[in-house]
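Quick one, T. Sequence first:
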Amino acid sequence: MIDVAGLVPGAHEGKGMGNQFLDDLRQADVLIHVIDIAGSTNENGEPVGTGTYDPAEDVKFLELELDLWYYGILKKGWEKFARQVMQEKMDIQIALAKQLSGLNVTEEYVIETINSLGLNKDSPGKWSDEDLKNIAGELRTKTKPMIIACNKIDIPSANENFERLKKEFPDHLLIKCSSESELALREAAKHNLIDYLPGEDTFKIIEENKLNDKQKNALIFIRENLLDKYGVTGVQGVLDKAVFDLLGYIAIFPGGVNKLEDQYGNTLPDCFLMPAGTTALDFAFRLHTDFGNKFIRAIDVKTKRTIGKDHQLKHRDVIEIISDK
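Structure tokens:
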């Protein structure tokens, strides 16, 4: 996970820390855009009165900046590129995917975009400037799927803004959250004041006499203004959506048929997030290069069935790797 530099309008032109921000984004597979849904932070990241700033502007301006960034990369040397594609009768999807490979653009994404916009793939030299902007926007959406983390949902007027943004951006994935509440709960759990697991809809106070009045009031506020209303703080939900829904990753546990615990008695202490389609051999290499190079077979611990190197693993599989020592 990368916490990128702040973004201001004009970032695609290098304003603020725009260049650093956009360079960081090149390596991102999913974007989590954190906005102040209570409207208490303006476009420059400065605190303002609650409800005085429209958070919808943040959604619009970030997407505009990203689209213009993609457009700038696409537009650079376009005439020469398009002319070469037409003269050499190259497949535009292959040429353009190669040109934009640094943005994770694939041939499939290119052809889907061309078809959806109704463009003639044999005549890229005739595509207008508006066509290029539309292509940039489509490819940005495909290569940088985004979650809008609507932070500060526990502040009055925040939920009203959230419901409005859901109508204004029906195709966007918006999630209510309160990072401050999640942090408070995790800190309290770390100090053994409460029993709380990130993503759960409740917590249990372990020893109330260890809590001072300020801590008690904070926990009461979180329970009444967040958990009772919305169920969760939303922070874990944002991460789960990014990893499992948008990226389609699966969780694989290394284990043994006769040994599921480590030396400290922890059951299945390790978990690896892997892309869909991961094979037993892929997982062996992820654990250690030697396991992959000396792979003999794997065992599905749940079924105790032997599986081969090309067997595709499923979400929450427990796998034992057998290799040549």
